Structure formats: C-alpha cells, structure tokens
C-alpha cells in the first residue's frame, strides 16, 4: 500500500515482525519517524490508543526493504533514508559523506558561546555534509564563510544542504586539503572550526561495520596516533587566523592533552579544553595573538 492507511494495532504488529528479524528498537523507530513520517511522540500515542488510524509517508514494503538492507549489510539508516536530524536542522546525507554526529552539535554551540557577536570571516575545514557551515551561516547572517573539503562528493552534498538552508550565497565551497584552498584569505579568519579525521588507524579498523565499512575512511582515519590532520590544522592556523582569531576543533576522547600540547607549542593563546555532554574532553579552543586585518574579497 502506497500512502495507505492502517491502524495502530496493525502497525505495532508489523513492527514486532520486523524487530524479530534483528536490530535495535530505537533504530527501527527512527526509521519510522524519518522515512515513514511518524514522529516518535505519535508512535508512543499508538501504544496507548491502538485503534487510532496511521498515515505513513511511504509503503510498508519500502520501509521493510530499508530495514532488511540495514540488517543485511549494516548500511546506516541515514544513508538509506538520505536524511539526518542534526541540531534543529535536517541534513541531507549520502554514501561517501560522513554522517553528522550529535557531539559535533556542541562544536557549533562552543563557536556561538566564544564568538557571541559573530565573526566577519569564518571557515569550516573538512566540511563534509556542510552541517556546521550551514548552522554557522544561519546563526550569523551578516558573516561570510568558507567551507573546505578534499572530497568532491562531500562538497556536492554540502552545496545541496547550504542551498536548502538558503545560505549558499554566503558560504563559498572550496575543494582541497585543509588550509591550501584558503591561501588568498590567509590572516583574515576570525573563527575556524574543524571536525577532522582523528580516529587512530588501529581503532578505526575495529569500529562497528556500519561505520568502518560504509562511512568514508578519509573522514575518520587520522593516522597512527589519530593526530595527522590536527597537526596540520594547528600548524596552518598561525598564518590563516587573524590576530585574536579563534580556532575550535573536535578530537578523539583520549586526545585532549595531546591537542592542548600541540596548540601551546605552536604559540596559541587562551588554550582550553571543553567537555561533551558526558563531561569527556572532546573539543579544544585557542586564539592566535596579535593585531588584526579586515575581511575582503580576492
């Protein structure tokens, strides 16, 4: 049945059949929400009022096919649905592009907290789906942003998300490695954010198949100690940041001291670590000292 209607009792019985095949109830309910158009709260209502009619956004057979594909191949549901809720946004995602993580939402919150008036010029290194660039552009409508990635596929996905958010004219997408595409604007960035690959190679090799086998290794594997990209970002910030410019980075849960040491050794000021919602140190911030320059076009 396409766009067909059934009642809560029928849907819950069908849900039990699908979960008997395996998988997590939470994941299945997420699929019902994002692909089926049945929000979690409505799902809970059906448990109290099984007689209520249910209108789904797609056929039960389509939902079942997605669920079976997820169980058989470990392909993330976000790729199968093509969307991922993130902060107050809905981000389009596709294979070859890192799925936005909930903890990365806190990197945006840190940027808003540490630069409350908004920077004139900012950059997002390793933008992936463009989720952070979109969030920052929406938060600072008078700012100008640059979003860099070495993956053409990621940049295509970021372009879709920026256009859907109505900010494509305020964020310039650039292909290349870290700071290299930003060379015309070096010394002008008042804020730079990055969620780079930081998982040590040996740890990446042991990740669950849904991540290791389906998400892009280039966005996850940070080298032997996980710090390859972080070293490049820290080193390049000296030339790229405006005096007083802020650098914010996400890192692995056990890399806080190593990243703080990198920033301190490179001459940054106000070097700080920041915890996630569970208190684990997952982020680092630092400022580049000195006197400033204006943001302008080249």
Automatic annotation (TrEMBL):
Record flagged with keyword Magnesium: no
Keywords (A to Z) from UniProt: Methyltransferase, S-adenosyl-L-methionine, Transferase
CDD domains named among the record's database cross-references: AdoMet_MTases
First-tier enzyme category under EC: transferase
Full protein name: Release factor glutamine methyltransferase
Domain Methyltransferase small: 118-198
Binding site for substrate: 195-198
EC annotation from Swiss-Prot or TrEMBL: 2.1.1.297
Catalytic activity: L-glutaminyl-[peptide chain release factor] + S-adenosyl-L-methionine = N(5)-methyl-L-glutaminyl-[peptide chain release factor] + S-adenosyl-L-homocysteine + H(+)
GO BP: any one term: methylation
SUPFAM superfamilies in the record: S-adenosyl-L-methionine-dependent methyltransferases
Example GO molecular function: nucleic acid binding
């Amino acid at each position: 049945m396409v766009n067909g209607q059934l009642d809560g009792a029928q849907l819950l019985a069908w849900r039990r059949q699908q979960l008997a095949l395996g998988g997590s109830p939470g994941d299945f309910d997420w699929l019902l929400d994002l692909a089926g158009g049945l929000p979690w709260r409505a799902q809970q209502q059906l448990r109290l009022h099984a007689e209520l009619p249910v209108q789904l956004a797609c056929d039960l057979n389509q939902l079942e096919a997605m669920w079976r594909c997820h169980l058989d191949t470990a392909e993330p549901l976000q790729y199968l649905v093509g969307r991922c809720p993130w902060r107050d946004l809905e981000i389009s995602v596709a294979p070859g592009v890192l799925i936005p993580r909930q903890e990365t939402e806190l990197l945006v919150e840190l940027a808003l907290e540490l630069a409350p008036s908004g920077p004139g010029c900012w950059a997002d290194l390793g933008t992936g789906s463009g989720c952070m660039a979109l969030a920052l552009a929406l938060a600072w409508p008078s700012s100008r942003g640059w979003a860099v990635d070495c993956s053409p596929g990621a940049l295509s996905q970021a372009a879709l998300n920026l256009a859907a958010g109505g900010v494509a004219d305020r964020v310039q997408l650039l292909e290349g490695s870290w700071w290299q595409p930003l060379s015309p604007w070096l010394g002008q960035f008042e804020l730079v954010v990055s969620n780079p690959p930081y998982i040590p190679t040996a740890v990446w090799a042991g990740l669950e198949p849904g991540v290791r086998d389906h998400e892009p290794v280039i966005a996850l594997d940070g080298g032997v100690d996980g710090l390859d990209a972080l070293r490049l970002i820290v080193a390049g910030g000296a030339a790229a940041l405006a005096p007083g410019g802020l650098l914010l980075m996400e890192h692995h849960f056990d890399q806080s001291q190593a990243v703080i040491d990198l920033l301190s050794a490179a001459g940054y000021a106000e070097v700080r670590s920041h915890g996630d919602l569970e208190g684990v140190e997952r982020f680092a911030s630092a400022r580049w000292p000195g006197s400033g320059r204006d943001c302008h076009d080249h």
